[in-house]
Amino acid sequence: WQLRHRRVWKFTTNDVARITIRDRGKTREIVRSGPASWQLAPGSQGIIVTFAIEEAAYQLGELTAANWVARGDAERDRYGFKPEGHKVTVELTDGRKLSVEFGGVAPSAIPYATALIDDEPWIFEFPPIVYYKSVLPYLTIPANVP
Questions:
Q1: Residue 28 · residue 134 · CB < 8 Å
Q2: What is the pLDDT of residues 17-31, one digit of tens each?
Q3: Is the pLDDT of residue 9 over 70?
Q4: How many CB atoms lie within 10 A of CB 10?
Q5: Is the pTM of this model over 0.90?
Q6: What is the DSSP letter of 72?
Q7: Residue (of 117, 61, 62, 107) closest to 80 by Cα position
Q8: Which of 2-11, 47-56, 112-121 has the lowest mean pLDDT?
């Protein structure tokens, strides 16, 4: 299984209808209404940096694992996944929902993530450039948000 192709999934930015962010028990929804057109869903708070969100959606659509770590849910605790942890769900225009959940950090400073692949959870090292340049600054909920 460690030799499996590293592609997690593939979709285009135009396929994205909504991004839902869950972080520390809070939720924020961002809705895409067209090219480079993003708004907060009713009830969500925050600031939208339109082109950064557009780039983050693009990067998620091209998601590949930096390294496969484990399969299944048995080792979630070992890799730092928590029930109220950071999770990003991309809802596509065809109704599919693709989620990536973030856990702890590997000794290499690369964050662990998990996603369903062929209906099975796979734990992998998330691409650090995508995480630190797109996910962490734009697809999290800051600690000071109520």
A1: no
A2: 999 999 988 999 999
A3: yes
A4: 10
A5: yes
A6: S
A7: 107
A8: 2-11
The C-alpha atoms of residue 72 and residue 47 are separated, in whole angstroms, by 35
Please state, as a whole number, how many other Cβ atoms lie within 10 Å of the Cβ of residue 79. Answer: 20
Looking up tokens 């390294």 gives 67
CA–CA–CA angle 76, 61, 41 (5° rounding): 85
What's the mean pLDDT when you consider all of the chain? 93
Q: What is the amino acid identity at position 114? A: T
Contact assessment for residue 97 and residue 89, using Cβ atoms and an 8 Å cutoff:
yes
**pLDDT tens figures, 136-145:** 999 999 777 6
Strands 16-23 and 87-92: antiparallel
What tokens does 82 get?
Answer: 């928590």
**Sheet-wide strand order for 120-125:** 37-40, 26-34, 16-23, 87-92, 97-105, 111-117, 120-125, 67-71
